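tool_call: predict_structure(chain=1)
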Amino acid sequence: MEEVKYVDNVILDKELFNLYKGLVSHNGWNLTRSSLGGDVGNFPGFIVRDNDQVYNDYWNGYFTSLYERIKISFYEKYKYKLPDLISRIHLGAKNENSMTEFHSDDNSDSTTILGFLTPVWAKDWGGSFQVEENNVDFKPGKFLIFNSSKAHEGVGPSKKIPYWRISINYIIKK
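tool_result:
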């Protein structure tokens, strides 16, 4: 089993609060959808970019710039150079009623980077992320990297909390 690699503190606290505020005020969210039943294209969240189609210029610019910081952080920690080609940028949101199924994002030639964007999180709120047998606790500002063909799921909060559990999902092509 391949280990899930991660870096912490790519986005610092003050920026996370500002980012979260901007994201939740954005009117492009679709929070009534679900990825149950194998329809992973129907997730609760919003699409920033999918292949060559950009759906939101502002957020595409922000998250493309953020990807450069993510690449630097992974290189500093693992001496691992991430590819440059971003294929997809999606944001997902979960509350205590959200449910998803295990799924994969793409084929084995792609890399998934998942980042936790909620600025405050208590361990007893749940919200973990699982990649096959690897369970990762939700921690604000943490970014994970794994092969896009690996089965994974994000768990919503275990109880009603004052925040949405927001994550970003990049698909990177080699």
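agent: The chain has a mean pLDDT of 88. Proceeding to next step.
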